[in-house]
Design a protein that fits this description.
Layout lengths: L7 E3 L1 H6 L6 H16 L4 E4 H13 L4 H11 L4 E2 L3 H14 L3 H12 L4 E3 L13 E3 L4
Parallel strand pairs: 1-2, 1-4, 2-3, 4-5
Length: 140
C-alpha cells in the first residue's frame, strides 16, 4: 500500500460500467480504473453499500449470482468501508451540507471515513470539492 489510507473512493456506477457491454467507451475507461485498483492494492476504496448496489444492478442485468458473488469476494480485498451507525450519522451531516440524497451522502461519508481525497463517480458534480474530497467523473 502506497500510503496509510486509500487516496480514491470508487462509486458503484464506475464499477458497473466495467461490466457494461452496451457502453464500450465507458467500459474501457472503467476497466482501466478497476485495473489500477488491482495494481495499486489499497489505493482504491469501496464500501459495503457499493457492493450491495453492485449486486442488485448486476442481478438486474441477468449476471449469474455465482459470478456476482465471486466478484464481490474479489473486490473484498480492497479497503471496504462498513455501513455503520457512525457512517450514517456522518452521512446525515453531508446530506444537509451538500444537499445530497441519503445514498450519495453515504458514499461521501464512506470516502471521508477512509481519508480519500478523490471520489470517482458519475453521480456528483465533476470537479466539485466536497470539503476536501474532489468529485471526478472519469467519463468526461
Amino acid at each position: 500500500m502506497a500510503g496509510d489510507s486509500p487516496s480514491r473512493f470508487i462509486d458503484t456506477n464506475v464499477l458497473l460500467y466495467a461490466y457494461d457491454l452496451e457502453s464500450p467507451r465507458k467500459r474501457t475507461r472503467a476497466k482501466g480504473i478497476v485495473e489500477q485498483g488491482w495494481e495499486s492494492l489499497g489505493e482504491l476504496a469501496i464500501s459495503v453499500q457499493v457492493l450491495q448496489e453492485l449486486q442488485v444492478n448486476l442481478e438486474r442485468k441477468k449476471v449469474s449470482r455465482g459470478e456476482i458473488h465471486q466478484l464481490i469476494d474479489d473486490l473484498s480485498v480492497w479497503p471496504v468501508v462498513d455501513n455503520t451507525l457512525m457512517i450514517l450519522r456522518m452521512a446525515l451531516g453531508e446530506q444537509v451540507r451538500w444537499q445530497l440524497s441519503l445514498w450519495d451522502a453515504m458514499i461521501l461519508a464512506a470516502a471521508r471515513s477512509v481519508g480519500a481525497s478523490e471520489l470517482v463517480t458519475e453521480d456528483f458534480s465533476h470537479g466539485q470539492n466536497y470539503g476536501g474530497i474532489r468529485a471526478v467523473n472519469p467519463f468526461r
